[in-house]
Amino acid sequence: MVAMMFALMLAAAPAEPLAKCPVSAHWRDGLVDTRKMVITPLSNVIDVNDDKLFWNGKPVEFDTLVGYGTEVAKLRPRPWIKIDASGADCTTLTKVMEAFGDAAACTPEACMVSRKAIPEGERH
């Protein structure tokens, strides 16, 4: 029974440890910079769960997500963007950081990657 549970845990683990996944210069690395982001009604969370993407809890396709980034870049004041990468693999996370970060003109002041799950009270 224990061996079967362990095998299931390994199967669910990301291929590359996220701790080794570099964070783009456009994003604040939640492991290095632990300042809390100010939560506003304009905050948005991108969940990266393996190859599945969610925008504020709703499933979203990659191209749509990048389109949201273009719209976010136009907003004033700028909303916070947080990636919950707790369920991500490094390849998908890197792809999202690069494409969305470019589209949204992310900076570490407005965009953060968390390798730990973002608690519900810190999502919006």
Concise summary:
This protein has 124 residues and is α/β, with parallel strands linked by helices. 31% of the residues lie in helices and 22% in strands.
Q: What layout of secondary structure does this protein have?
A:
Layout: H1 2-12, E1 28-29, E2 44-50, E3 52-55, E4 58-59, H2 62-74, E5 81-88, H3 90-103, E6 111-114
Parallel strand pairs: 1-6, 2-5, 5-6
Antiparallel strand pairs: 2-3, 3-4
Report what the structure shows:
The protein is an alpha/beta fold and 124 residues long. The chain contains 3 helices and 6 strands. The chain has helices at 2-12, 62-74, 90-103, and strands at residues 28-29, 44-50, 52-55, 58-59, 81-88, 111-114. It has a 6-stranded mixed sheet, covered by helices on one side. Strand 3 and strand 4 (58-59) form a beta hairpin. The chain is globular and about 35 Å long.
Helix/strand-derived category reads alpha/beta
What is the end-to-end distance?
A: 40 Å
Helix segment tally? 3
Percent in helix: 25-40%
Describe the sheet with the most strands: 6 strands, mixed
Strand and helix order: HEEEEHEHE
Number of strands: 6
Rg, alpha carbons: 15 Å
Percentage of residues in strands: 15-25%
Strand order of the largest sheet: 1-6-5-2-3-4
Shape, principal axes of CA atoms: globular
Key traits:
alpha/beta, globular, disordered N terminus
